[in-house]
Amino acid sequence: MADLNLIALSGVVTRDAVLREKAGGQVKAEFSFEVERPFLRSNGEPVSDLFLVDVWNDLGKWATEHIKEGQQLLILGTLNKESYSTRAGREHLTIVKAKYLRLLDERLLDGRVDVEQLKADWWPTSLLHQAVGIVDSAISDEVVVAQAASAELPEASS
């Protein structure tokens, strides 16, 4: 039995998606993605996190054609830790493996969530329900990313 590994991120693409062919014919798109935190540094600059995103196979092909630097995006996927060898030894990298991508016209949370609550060290259940509801609304909208681009993606198999 598997445990739940689910991440939802909204932010801005900081590097166009690039397609790479892997052994066995699989393809993987990679791009970088910035998520702004609800904090400011003492000098007034925003605090953000930068993620490397992997997108596999048909969704990856779609991403290389449609995901461009500067776009607002919603990503649903998993967090995965990968390791590789370097001259200095083993290195570890945390990757977001995208399972769903959605282009956004605006920031997902703007005007929908109390920013002060987001800054807290713990979130009340009501804020969690609100955040999940916002994500649910975004993925329930009929204009999903693949359909909006007229690029039909295969249905996920159960």
Can you give a write-up of this model?
A five-stranded mixed beta barrel has the order 1-3-4-6-5. Mean pLDDT is 86; it is low at 142-151. Helices cover 22% and strands 42% of the residues. The relative contact order is 0.17. The chain has one domain (7-148): OB fold (Dihydrolipoamide Acetyltransferase, E2P). It is of the alpha+beta class and 158 residues long. The chain contains four helices and six strands.
Report the major sheet: 5 strands, mixed, barrel
Give the C-level CATH assignment.
Mainly Beta
Number of helices: 4
Number of domains: 1
Widest sheet, order of strands: 1-3-4-6-5
What is the 3D form? globular
Run of helices and strands: EEEEHEEHHH
Distance between the termini: 16 Å
Report the strand count: 6
The gist of it:
The protein is α+β, with helices and mostly antiparallel strands and 158 residues long. The protein has helices at residues 57-66, 115-118, 125-140, 145-148; strands at residues 7-13, 18-21, 27-40, 46-56, 72-86, 89-104.
Topology of this protein?
Layout: E1 7-13, E2 18-21, E3 27-40, E4 46-56, H1 57-66, E5 72-86, E6 89-104, H2 115-118, H3 125-140, H4 145-148
